[in-house]
UniProtKB/TrEMBL annotation:
The keyword Signal applies. It comes from the Eukaryota. It comes from Senna tora. Keywords: Signal. InterPro entries: TUNICAMYCIN_INDUCED_1. PANTHER family: PROTEIN TUNICAMYCIN INDUCED 1, TUNICAMYCIN INDUCED PROTEIN. This is Tunicamycin induced protein. Residues 1-23 form the signal peptide.
Length: 434
């Protein structure tokens, strides 16, 4: 008998160990530890919503359920009558994907022998989003933040060293690739009146751009200055024609002005002469500037057409903000203009509150047979922007969860009546019934 007990004891200990280990795996799988980015996001949302910490319980924020997408963000600060009005516009995200971002990785304790105290799980795909290739036309200056990663192609690669500043002469056009953001370095004073959309083109913004371009050609006037962030390449615009004359027109000349400073110029002056004729039209009547088809692009972005939907929308927004001032002579100032490629995260969470008397919960129409709820649950979805190692909430919206259909026993629907008291109903005979 004693030998039987000795044999059963190791088996029981083995079963208890397996049960506890499986329970620990299940609990950690259901409630994974939050990485720091998610914890900071949770605290920011709780402060923003104003939920009392002692009444509400916030749960969710599972990084495995986070959807990741890329978009373009536009930020503008406009000063009108000594009042600064900020604009923040965001393009729709075309595609949401489940991506394992590095900032959502949980740091684990290091194994014996590791030099660092913590080991972080990393994802091999940690690239940042970039803007689509675009063209810039001179005269203007470009300040390169990532100067060591600048690449020049005129049209062949040129070793110009570490470039911190590139000046585009009048008539020079370059294609920018790999930029993460483009921003205005100095405020601009823009004249009024602002003409509204004309024949499907952003006439007002095109007119303002041509006036700034004309002012940049004035001797001694400051050039339009932009800052580019990201490992960028500047290249001569590619030509669809294979003729040698077209390739010569697209070729740019490089002139070294100082260490880290070069000037790019075009041997062809046709674009400059066309721009001068555009200014001559501008000095007459502004809407006539849009009559020639070659003046429908918005300087300095040579690849941006005046009929672009985003450009038309911003012009309409600016006209509504200016109001009657848009049609009067005057000026306003553009303090900030920033266009950047951003990574956004969409993740859901749950807010719970225990119901008490006097909370005002409306239970009218609630079935009598059903158990009254003791908790109030609200489902939300947050749209947040990834900024380095931080996740900044942009918008929090309530969402309706998936409604589960109720399954009710027949006796509950029939008022708990037995089958013996149910009336007997004889259906009409069917001649095809065997």
């Amino acid at each position: 008998m004693r030998s039987i007990h000795l044999r059963i004891l190791p088996i029981a200990l083995l079963l208890l160990h397996s049960c506890f280990s499986s329970a620990s795996l299940t609990s950690s799988d259901i409630n994974p530890p939050y990485p720091k980015a998610i914890s900071d996001l949770k605290e920011a949302i709780v402060k923003g919503l104003g939920f009392p910490a002692e009444e509400f319980t916030i749960s969710g924020f599972d990084p495995r359920e986070a959807k990741v997408g890329h978009s373009v963000e536009y930020q503008f600060d406009v000063e009108i009558d000594h009042k600064v009005i900020p604009f923040k516009l965001l393009e729709d995200v075309n595609r949401w994907e489940y991506v394992d971002l590095p900032i959502f990785q949980v740091k684990e304790p290091a194994k014996p022998g590791d030099q660092n105290g913590l080991v972080e799980k990393r994802n091999s795909d940690n690239g940042l989003p970039v803007l689509a290739p675009f063209q810039l036309a001179g005269p203007m200056e470009l300040w390169i933040q990532d100067a060591k990663d600048m690449r020049l192609s005129l049209p062949h690669d040129v070793d110009a060293g570490v470039l911190k500043k590139v000046i585009l002469a009048d008539g020079a056009v370059v294609t920018v690739k790999g930029a993460r953001s483009v921003s205005l370095r100095h405020p601009l004073d823009l004249p009024l009146p602002l003409n509204t959309t004309h024949n499907g083109f952003a006439a007002g913004l095109l007119t303002l751009a041509e006036q700034i371009r004309h002012a940049s050609r004035t001797h001694g006037a400051p050039l339009l200055s932009l800052r580019i962030v990201g490992p960028t390449s500047l290249a001569s615009p590619s030509s669809s024609s294979s003729s040698s004359s077209s390739s010569n027109n697209n070729r740019l000349k490089l002139k070294r002005l100082a260490p880290g400073l070069v000037e790019l110029s075009s041997p062809s002056k046709t674009e400059a002469s066309e721009a001068i004729s555009a200014i001559d039209l501008l000095q007459g009547e502004a809407p006539t500037l849009l009559t020639p088809t070659q003046f429908t692009t918005m300087w300095p972005f040579a690849s941006l057409n005046g009929s672009n939907a985003n450009l038309l929308g911003f012009e309409a927004l600016l006209a509504s903000v200016l109001g009657p001032k848009a049609s009067k002579k005057g000026s306003f100032r553009l303090l900030k203009a920033d266009v950047s490629a951003q990574t956004f995260v969409k993740i859901g969470f749950l807010a719970e509150k225990k119901l008490k008397e006097g909370d005002g919960a409306n239970l009218e129409g609630f079935p009598e047979w059903r158990t009254k709820p003791e908790m109030l649950r609200m489902h939300f979805e947050v749209l947040a922007k990834v900024d380095g190692d931080k996740v900044i909430p942009e918008r929090v919206i309530p969402v309706n969860p998936l409604i589960v259909e109720d399954t009710v026993a027949p006796n509950a629907l029939d008022g708990n009546v037995t089958m013996s008291r149910m009336p007997i109903i004889h259906p009409p005979p069917n001649p095809f019934t065997l």
